[in-house]
User: Which sequence fits this backbone?
C-alpha cells in the first residue's frame, strides 16, 4: 500500500496538511484529498510534485 503525506508549499515553508493520503482527485484547481480512514479535505491550488519513493505530495496554494 502506498500512502503519502501532503504538504502545502508557500514561499517561506512547507506545512503538513494531511498524513496517509490514500487518494487524490483533481477538478480544475480543486484538489480533494482522502486519508486512509476516510477523512477528506479540499485544497485550492496546484500539485507541484508527487514523490512515490518519499511518499510526499506537494501542493502550491492558489
Assistant:
Amino acid at each position: 500500500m502506498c500512502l503519502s503525506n501532503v504538504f502545502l508549499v508557500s514561499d517561506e515553508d512547507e506545512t503538513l496538511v494531511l498524513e496517509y493520503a490514500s487518494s487524490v482527485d483533481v477538478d480544475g484547481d480543486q484538489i480533494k484529498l482522502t486519508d486512509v480512514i476516510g477523512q477528506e479535505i479540499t485544497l485550492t491550488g496546484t500539485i507541484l510534485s508527487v514523490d512515490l519513493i518519499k511518499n510526499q505530495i506537494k501542493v502550491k496554494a492558489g
Remarks:
- The chain has a mean pLDDT of 95.
- The first strand starts at residue 4 and ends at 9.
